Amino acid sequence: MEFHRYATRSVCLTLLAAIFPFILPAQAAPPASQTSSTDALMTQLLALRDSFVNQVKAEGFKPSLPPPQIVIDNPPSYGRYEDDSNTLHTSAWQTLPPDQEARFVRLSEMMQGRQTPEELFEEGVHRWVFVHELGHWWQACQHKITDDHYAVEYGANRIAAAFWRLKDPDYMKRRTEHFRAITALLPNPVPEGQSKEKFFNANYGKLAGTPVYTWYQSSMVVDVSAENPAPSFRQTLQ
Question: Of 2, 49, 129, 187, which has the fewest beta carbons less than 10 angstroms from its beta carbon?
Fold first, then answer.
């Protein structure tokens, strides 16, 4: 649902684009007149970031990095953590380019209006993708952002899932159902006789921005949610 230097996590079809969109051209910064509309959003995101960081500390861990700076600049993937600058980039509904906003409009129509386009955006981007990227921040704290791309992405999904099970289990249940529906829509891309992990790592540079990458991210969350017993937030941070 893409989300650092692996900045091209994306969904390629209209139903899927609200979580991991296609790679898009870099967008210009919004005019100064629009910045005031993001003040409330920044307050919301800072609160969520601090809730995550404080929960990490409550579990007995001491982060080696300060909380990441938050920049609202509409990255193509709607969320990106940059470990070299300790910055988490995210998007704002008010300043989305028309083509990106249209993705959520189409998704809302496909869902027969059960959620508005903005509600879909908020739930997918400012909750799931944002916390997934905070998972990458914690991995950076532990120097665990490596070339094992599958482990890095799986770990961030595992952290995000455990956080939401702790803070809002109903939301996590909805996310799991959402990702399960996506895996049902897309074919399993892993060739017969190969492991998911090896295929992902061997082809990582070619997968970003494709339905295969979408399937992988969704499949990871489904697998994470199937762990029994479900790991605690503390366990996912270790």
Answer: 187
